[in-house]
Amino acid sequence: MNELAIYDMDRTVTRTGTYTPFLFHAASRLFPWRLLAAPAVPFVMAAYAAKAIDRRRLKEINQCLLLGGAVPRAKLAPVTESFADLILKTNVLPGALRQIAEDKAAGRRLVLATASYRFYVEPIAERLGFDDVIATGSIMGLDDIIHAKIDGENNYGPAKLRLIEAWMDKEGIDRTDTRIRFYSDHVSDAPVLEWADEPFAVNASPKLRRLADRRSWPSLDWSA
Q1: What is the pLDDT of residue 1?
Q2: Which domains, from first to last, does the chain contain?
C-alpha cells in the first residue's frame, strides 16, 4: 500500500503566513520603489475581508502592486532562494521538522499542498525534504515570464482537495490502495481532512479546534 503524508504549509509548517512576507522580501530586493505602494496593501486586504474581492483577486492585486504585472522567472529566482533560506532559518516550527523526519523515516511520500504560489514554495519544499508540491500556479508566458495572474484554481478550500486528487491521478496513485495522512491548521482544509485516512489538526485555529473535537481528530502543537 502507498502512504502519503500531505502537509499544509502556512501556519502548519511555518509559524506565520508566507505570501505577503515574500512579496515584501522580493520587492525590497528587486523593485524597492514599489514599496511606495505598500500602504495600499491593507486596503486590498480590507476589500477581501468585506467580501468585495475573493482570495484569488487579493493575491493577484497584491502581487501586481509589489512586483508588477510580469516578472522574468530568472529575475525572481535569486529572491525565491534567499526567501527559502530565510524561512528555514526563522519561520519553521520545530514540531514540523520532527514530523517531517518521522514521516520520511517511515517511508511515506511527502507532499506539500499549499495555497501559496509554486514559484516560491518549491525552494522551501526542497529544503524541507518534500518529494512533491501541490501549489497555486501562475500564468507563465512563452518567454518564461511569471504574470500576476493565477493559472487554474487557487489551491484553497475545496479546490485543494480537487487539486490533490488531480495530482494523484496524474501520478497514477490509486486512492483505494493509498493511506493518506493530512496535517493542517485551518478549517478551510476541512474537505481534505474529512477525506484523509489520518487527519491531524496542527496548531489549530479556533474553528478547526472545535471541528477536530467533534470529529475526534488528533490535535497537535508543533510550536514546542
Answers
A1: 86
A2: 2-16+80-220 (3.40.50.1000)
